[in-house]
Amino acid sequence: MMQVKSCSEEVVAALLVKIETDIKEDLSIEELCKFTGYSPGHLQRLFKSKTSLPLATFIRNRKIYHAAQSIIGSKKRILDVAVDYSYSSHQSFSRAFKAVIGITPVQFKQANDSQYTTLLSAHYPLLLTLSAQSV
């Protein structure tokens, strides 16, 4: 039996794809409203009802998760990673990183491989019941 997705699930799935595709861009609620055609309030309520997270929090957390992966997989300076993910300063990136991961980017970079797995798996990837592939 084929499962029918509601319009709201399709919108959120498309939004998840958009966020992941444009994760290095400066994603604003206004831009995402234009993408979906919904008002800011409605879009944020819809997103939270389907994912249990506010939209802005989800975007920040995904950016930090991807940035953490970049820190692990490269010899880039932390400032360069911050700029890659649209942070305007090292300080704002470090604050957001610590809020999500629990330690600063410098501490994270100095951690060993087993600590990476523990730190990242404690926060992400967020498992959603929505399939972004269904769009």
Give a structural overview:
With 135 residues, the chain is mainly alpha-helical. α4 crosses α6. It has a single domain, classed as Orthogonal Bundle (Arc Repressor Mutant, subunit A), CATH 1.10.10.60. The chain is built from eight helices and no strands.
Record the SSE blueprint.
Layout: H1 7-21, H2 29-36, H3 40-51, H4 55-73, H5 78-84, H6 90-101, H7 105-110, H8 113-121
Q: Remind me, CATH topology? A: Arc Repressor Mutant, subunit A
Number of DSSP strands?
0
**H and E string:** HHHHHHHH
How helix-rich are the residues, as a percent range? 55-70%
Largest sheet: none
CATH superfamily: Homeodomain-like
Q: Specify the number of helices.
A: 8
Average pLDDT over all residues: 83
Q: What is the general shape?
A: elongated
| Tally of distinct domains | 1
Distance between the termini: 19 Å
Strand content: under 5%
The computed structural class is mainly alpha
Cα gyration radius (Å): 16 Å
- What is the CATH class designation? Mainly Alpha
In short, what is this structure?
With 135 residues, the protein is mainly α. The protein has helices at residues 7-21, 29-36, 40-51, 55-73, 78-84, 90-101, 105-110, 113-121.
